[in-house]
């Protein structure tokens, strides 16, 4: 036996001597397939695998055919030529689950987790198998149950009512099955987390299920195809998330004073009643079509709100917020937003991404992150001025991303800009720019960007060729400062002291590479980003202003 083989055997012996709970923890970090392979290492490992309290079984149509199908869909259609292969594999899988489950249950240990994802062709024929498995896991006091059934066509597996009496379950995730109203009370006395995804359920059943789980803390509902969602009674419920398809949900009413976090994704105009949730601290709204007034009324219901994320709310034209407790605010993809009025003196972060440039009144003394685009409009002096005026609302702008493209003309004019806005551009941390401009627009582009703000670093992202980088380096090195002597506040050329250029590698977390000759750099290195450190020197009267 060679030295390396001896070392391997000794290492395996030491690994096998670890206490059972440590080996079980190692198995919990592996996939189900990897965990099963440990059983061949030794007799002790085989025994420990058999007693491993996390049973994870994942088999679906995608596993057998190798096709890229979305397993979250409620149903799948199988081509005729794949049906026989699928049935054969499914029989083997069912036998494997049967043997594994029975073997574990014979040990009479409590089960920590049971996860099953299975695709069925014949729901009626195999329902009794799923019922029996659920009966066994409930009998063995399972704590976490993750159960997803993918079915063919419109036939859906009806969940065994044994689940409603599983007193040991603390976490329950159900997907692709039908939940029928039980005759008696639901006895999920230990349930703390409930997730329902694409299940068939009535409003009455949902309300009963939630209201009779007194320890429930987390609730996640997605694609239930309900018109109305009413949630009340759980005294400990802290987190609710709802995701629904368009043209389905009409109203959401939540009467949960303990609620702290709420997320709603719904591309529809719906009625939201959350007046009885005064302790809410985190609110995320995506795609909700409500008016400015409806938004203000909703926000006013949460005096303790600390985190607000508004995304893709297309009817909003003005956002008005006044709060001394708000700490984090994010507004993105509200494509019709025209004005924002924010009074949040204790805000810690502000993120404004992919919205129109707004008319703003801001009292938010915190770092800003801003992302703006010219969109379908060719940038002119007015566009650059609008960006400049918006950024002037803060002295702590951390990061600005601009996407600049023009079809016909980039018509920035420095003299016109100075006449309309004689103020000094703000200083910011990093300006990142996506550029889609022909070479004849380079001069107007650079003057416009450096009239908007003076960045400590300038990043050119995803350039299509090296011509702009070469042009930029030449113009930064050969500055003509005689261009605007008639103005008190001059252009960027008068204040740029020096600069350094870096290449940001494509691969990995490598540090930027300092480059002496940037003109030749695009041809020598593979990169998507050029980074310039800009060193500014301003007159004292400008700094005071």
From TrEMBL:
Gene3D superfamilies: 1.20.1280.50, Ribonuclease Inhibitor. It comes from Acer yangbiense. This is F-box domain-containing protein. InterPro entries: At1g61320/At1g61330-like, F-box-like_dom_sf, F-box_dom, LRR_At1g61320_AtMIF1, LRR_dom_sf. Pfam families: F-box, LRR_At1g61320_AtMIF1. Residues 12-61 form the F-box domain. SUPFAM superfamilies: F-box domain, RNI-like. The lineage of its organism: Eukaryota, Viridiplantae, Streptophyta, Embryophyta, Tracheophyta.
């Amino acid at each position: 036996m060679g030295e390396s083989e001896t070392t391997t055997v000794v290492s395996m012996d030491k690994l096998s001597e670890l206490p059972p709970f440590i080996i079980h923890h190692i198995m919990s970090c592996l996939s189900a397939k990897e965990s099963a392979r440990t059983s061949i290492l030794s007799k002790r490992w085989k025994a420990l695998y058999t007693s491993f309290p996390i049973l994870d079984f994942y088999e679906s149509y995608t596993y057998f055919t190798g096709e890229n199908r979305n397993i979250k869909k409620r149903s799948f259609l199988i081509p005729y030529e794949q049906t026989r292969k699928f049935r054969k594999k499914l029989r083997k899988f069912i036998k494997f689950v049967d043997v594994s489950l029975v073997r574990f249950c014979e040990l009479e240990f409590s089960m920590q987790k049971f996860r099953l994802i299975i695709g069925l062709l014949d729901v009626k024929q195999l329902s009794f198998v799923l019922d029996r498995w659920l009966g066994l896991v409930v009998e063995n006091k399972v704590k976490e149950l993750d159960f997803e059934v993918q079915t063919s066509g419109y036939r859906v597996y009806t969940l065994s009512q044994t689940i409603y009496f599983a007193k040991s379950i603390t976490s329950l995730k159900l997907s692709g099955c039908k939940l029928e109203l039980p005759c008696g009370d639901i006895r999920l006395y230990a349930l703390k987390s409930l997730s329902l995804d694409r299940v068939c359920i009535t409003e009455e059943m949902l309300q009963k299920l939630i209201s009779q789980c007194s320890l429930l803390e987390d609730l996640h509902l997605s694609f239930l195809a309900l018109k109305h969602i009413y949630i009340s009674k759980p005294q400990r419920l802290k987190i609710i998330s709802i995701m629904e398809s368009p043209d389905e949900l009409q109203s959401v009413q939540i009467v949960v004073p303990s609620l702290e976090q709420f997320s709603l994704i719904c591309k529809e105009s719906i009625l939201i009643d959350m007046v009885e949730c005064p302790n809410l601290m985190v609110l995320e709204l995506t795609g909700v079509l409500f008016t400015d007034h409806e938004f203000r009324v909703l926000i006013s219901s949460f005096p303790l709100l600390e985190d607000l994320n508004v995304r893709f709310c297309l009817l909003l034209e003005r956002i008005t917020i006044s709060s001394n407790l708000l700490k984090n605010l994010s507004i993105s993809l509200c494509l019709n937003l025209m004005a924002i009025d924010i009074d949040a003196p204790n805000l810690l972060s502000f993120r404004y991404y992919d919205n129109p440039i707004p008319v703003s009144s801001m009292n938010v003394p915190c770092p800003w992150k801003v992302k703006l685009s010219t969109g379908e409009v060719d940038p002119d002096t007015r566009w650059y001025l609008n960006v400049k005026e918006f950024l002037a609302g803060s002295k702590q702008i951390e990061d600005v991303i601009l996407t600049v493209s023009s079809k016909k003309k980039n018509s920035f004019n420095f003299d016109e800009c100075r006449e309309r806005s004689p103020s000094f551009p703000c200083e910011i941390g990093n300006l990142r720019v996506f550029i889609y401009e022909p070479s004849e627009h380079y001069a107007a582009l650079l003057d416009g960007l450096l009239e908007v703000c003076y960045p400590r670093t300038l990043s050119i992202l995803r350039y299509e060729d090296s011509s702009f980088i070469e042009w930029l380096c030449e113009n930064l090195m050969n500055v003509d400062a005689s261009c605007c002597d008639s103005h008190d506040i001059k252009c960027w050329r008068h204040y740029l002291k020096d600069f350094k250029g870096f290449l940001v590698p494509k691969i990995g977390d490598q540090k930027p590479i300092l480059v002496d000759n940037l003109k030749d750099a695009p041809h020598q290195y593979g990169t998507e980003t050029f980074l310039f450190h800009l060193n500014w020197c301003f007159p004292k009267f400008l700094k005071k202003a």
